[in-house]
C-alpha cells in the first residue's frame, strides 16, 4: 500500500493550495463538523477526509468538480489513518480507538464529473443503485406497504429476486411468484387499496395465467375502480370453472363478496353478479 499524506487539515474545512503561487485554489467544508485528517488519492483526482464527529464519516471529494463525490458511513469506527492502494481503488482506514481497520472499495462509486456540472440528487441515486446487492422481495414490499412491482431499475439491473430475463420475457411462468402476487392482491383489495390490488393481480396473472383465484381479486379491484365492463367481463368469463383448492368459480366470487361486506365494502355490481350466478349458465 502507498500512503498519501494529508492535503490539509484545519478545523471544519480543507484548503487546496497552489504551491507555485502560494494561493488557495478552493476550500472543502464540513460545516459545523471538524475534519480530523485529509488525504490525496494516488492519482491526485480525489481527497479523502475523515471527520471527528460521532459516526466516523469519511467523505471522498472530487478535485475537478470541487464538491463531494461520495460519503461513507463508518458507524462507530473513527478513522485516524488512511492508506490507499497504488491504483487508488481501495482505501484502508485504521481506527484511533480499538485499533480496528476497514477496507473501502472506491471503484464502484467512480464517475467522471464535468467541471461545470455539480453533483445532483439523481447522480447520488444512480451510484446507490450500483452498490445495492438486491431489491426487496414481494413479501417485504407487501410488509412495507409498497407497490408490488419493484422499481424499474431493479428489473433492468437484474437485482435479486427479480431476474432480468423473467421480467422481460412476455408470458413468463413462475407459479411461486404468481402466488405471492395473488396473496398481495387479495390483501390489497381487502384493505381497500384497489389500484395496488389490480396491479398485483395483473402481475400474478402474468406469472401464472392459469391461477383463476388471482382473477377473482382482479375482478374485485376492477369493480371498485369503477371499470365496470371490465369487471363484468372477468366475472362472467369463468362461470362453471373449477378453481383448484378453492371450489367453483361462482362460489369463490360469492364467498369473497360476503367477506367484503363484512368489512363494510359494498358495490351495486355485487348484487348484479350474484343474481347472474343464481341463473344457470347457457352451457349448464
Attribute tags:
four-stranded antiparallel β-sheet, alpha+beta, disordered N terminus, Serine Threonine Protein Phosphatase 5, Tetratricopeptide repeat, 2 domains, three-stranded antiparallel β-sheet, 284 residues, 10 helices, elongated, Methylamine Dehydrogenase, Chain H
Describe this structure in words.
This protein has 284 residues and is α+β, with helices and mostly antiparallel strands. It folds into two domains: 119 residues, YVTN repeat-like/Quinoprotein amine dehydrogenase (Methylamine Dehydrogenase, Chain H); 141 residues, Serine Threonine Protein Phosphatase 5, Tetratricopeptide repeat (Alpha Horseshoe), CATH 1.25.40. Helix content is 37%, strand content 20%. The chain has ten helices and eleven strands. The strands form four sheets. It has a four-stranded antiparallel sheet with strand order 3-4-5-6, with no helix packed on it. The chain is elongated. The N and C termini lie far apart (82 Å). The N terminus is likely disordered.
